[in-house]
């Protein structure tokens, strides 16, 4: 099977996975940390991208072009913006969109110039596996849900009610907002690499978002990542 890439933005999001990866070998490239090793018989390349679309794009490109990954997972946390998407829930992406892409009036709002689309679909197989893993992960906890659908990305930590309302108004089916997913989606589209994105909801992207985020990222996101990689 093809080598699996796994990327997270922040160390807390990948820590438990790296601790469980038995034979990882650290390499540094472009200011990034990349771990090459194995996970349950798969060849795995894990990397921290740093935060934001550019950082994520560089990392995804490196893993594909330099480390030869043929499948890619992005894991981490996100702000919940869909109705009923609560802190502690998991969102598995079926599509990703860059909510801050706007080359209008040359191209329609959100459209990727030259591509003719604004939404990029994830791999159905990886997405199905992530959904199963998410259900399983939440199986022990009460009241938490798995959502599947649109995740939007932009170079902005969303932290006010007004911003959330603006996103909801223009993208009513968006479930969660984060800062990397749609960027790696574009890289994977260009290289023809199947990918999946899974996010644990750390906050509601409102005025308390920064407080909830910091607490959650350490406690919950990291163990979740292990379960997700287990699934594929
Ligand atoms: N990642 C986690 N929470 C977020 C938020 N509120 N905005 C953007 N990215 C996030």
TrEMBL record:
One cellular component term from this protein's GO annotations in UniProt: cytosol
InterPro entries: MTA_SAH_Nsdase, Nucleoside_phosphorylase_d, Nucleoside_phosphorylase_sf
Keyword Amino-acid biosynthesis in record: yes
Pfam family, one: PNP_UDP_1
GO biological process, one term: nucleoside catabolic process
Pathway membership: Amino-acid biosynthesis; L-methionine biosynthesis via salvage pathway; S-methyl-5-thio-alpha-D-ribose 1-phosphate from S-methyl-5'-thioadenosine (hydrolase route): step 1/2
Secretion signal span: none
Enzyme class: hydrolase
PANTHER family named in the record: 5'-METHYLTHIOADENOSINE/S-ADENOSYLHOMOCYSTEINE NUCLEOSIDASE, 5'-METHYLTHIOADENOSINE_S-ADENOSYLHOMOCYSTEINE NUCLEOSIDASE
Protein name: adenosylhomocysteine nucleosidase
Source organism per UniProt: Aquabacterium lacunae
């Amino acid at each position: 099977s093809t080598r699996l890439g796994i990327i997270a933005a922040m160390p807390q999001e990948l820590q438990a996975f790296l601790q469980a990866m038995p034979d990882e070998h650290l390499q540094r490239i472009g200011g990034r940390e990349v771990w090459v090793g194995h996970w349950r018989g798969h060849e795995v390349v894990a990397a921290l991208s740093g935060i934001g679309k550019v950082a994520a794009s560089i990392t995804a490109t490196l893993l594909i072009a330099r480390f030869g990954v043929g499948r890619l997972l992005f894991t981490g946390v996100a702000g919940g913006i869909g109705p009923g998407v609560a802190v502690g829930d998991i969102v598995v992406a079926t599509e990703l969109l860059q909510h801050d892409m706007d080359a209008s009036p040359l191209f329609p709002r959100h459209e990727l110039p030259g591509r003719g689309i604004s939404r990029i679909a994830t791999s159905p197989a990886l997405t199905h596996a992530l959904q199963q893993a998410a259900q399983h992960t939440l199986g022990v906890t009460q009241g938490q849900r798995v959502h599947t659908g649109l995740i939007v990305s932009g170079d902005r930590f969303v932290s006010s009610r007004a911003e959330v309302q603006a996103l909801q108004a223009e993208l009513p089916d968006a479930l969660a907002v984060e800062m990397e997913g749609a960027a790696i989606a574009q890289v994977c589209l260009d290289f023809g690499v199947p990918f999946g994105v899974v996010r644990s909801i750390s906050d509601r992207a409102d005025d308390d978002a920064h407080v909830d985020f910091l607490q959650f990222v350490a406690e919950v996101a990291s163990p979740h990542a292990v379960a997700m990689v287990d699934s594929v």
